[in-house]
């Protein structure tokens, strides 16, 4: 449901908050140092990990894609006559979180709302962003037990089951089925494989405090997307959820199956046509460009499969319009209004004010790091 009011108040700025990525080869190792801070990983190992980036000229696609999303949001806000600046910041590369806070202060912002470029709730997709924001403010002497003493921050809820995100994915999958048919595949016999970033089993268990675990969130929205695709194409759609981009020691359990393992197993069973939908990602950044477009597509080719990768939601109109709807929804909630939070699927809307122990890295183990946008500045 589109909010009836186009008033973004009490917010006077929107923070587009993302992961970040290197812009040139010289950035790769420093960027990876930021990503792995505190883990004691030597630079020699980071150089090896960085080969994914060096293969793309040392530049991640994510920065240009975030700039494109920022521009699309600004255009949609202007189209609706909503006056609110959009400021971009990243956890791991320029412009850093501190740079974004500097820009918000320069603009005179008093209360900003954060839009994280992760649709799902987990430590990596929610709490870690809230922790980084709190730590940035703490280093500036702008944090106490009540929250920020400078610019105030709220966040937009996890939006995996918002109609705009879902419809944009449906449209992308339908385009992929059309492409599969155009290259001689058999769409009615194809398997739809939804793909997302794997996380450790311990993080998956801790994510349940949100109301549904990270994996359950994906399964719920995947079923909705597959159902809509089947309805519009006029044939049954068989689907599965797979994972990519696992890291860490081999002894640490992560969510499975890996997309390459799944393709191998299904090819052995006779599957020849597949559509991969990266529903865990909002843009075609490195996990998509390398893990899917390079590795998974190579696996499919070796197995003799007809494979097409659906696009991410990117700057598709339903997604961008949905994000603006979410901004207005959050603003109405902040004003104390009764709001019908728009969702699809079986899960309710997730909280915009997180529980104190929401999305810990490990179940029941507080990180000792403050986190904003929760019922208190928890540690």
Automatic annotation (TrEMBL):
Upper lineage: Bacteria, Bacillati, Actinomycetota, Actinomycetes, Micrococcales
HAMAP family found in the cross-reference section: Ferrochelatase
Keywords: Cytoplasm, Heme biosynthesis, Iron, Lyase, Metal-binding, Porphyrin biosynthesis
Reported function: Involved in coproporphyrin-dependent heme b biosynthesis. Catalyzes the insertion of ferrous iron into coproporphyrin III to form Fe-coproporphyrin III.
Gene3D superfamilies: 3.40.50.1400
Pathway assignment: Porphyrin-containing compound metabolism; protoheme biosynthesis
Homology family: Belongs to the ferrochelatase family.
InterPro entries: Ferrochelatase, Ferrochelatase_C, Ferrochelatase_N
Reaction equations catalysed: Fe-coproporphyrin III + 2 H(+) = coproporphyrin III + Fe(2+)
Coiled-coil parts of chain: none
Domain of life: Bacteria
Residues engaged in binding Fe(2+): 197, 287
Residues bound to Fe-coproporphyrin III: 60, 129
EC number: 4.99.1.9
Iron as UniProt keyword: yes
Enzyme category, top tier: lyase
Matching NCBIfam families: hemH, PRK00035.2-1
Protein name: Coproporphyrin III ferrochelatase
Subcellular location field: Cytoplasm
Main location: cytoplasm
Provenance organism: Isoptericola halotolerans
Recorded name of the encoding gene: cpfC
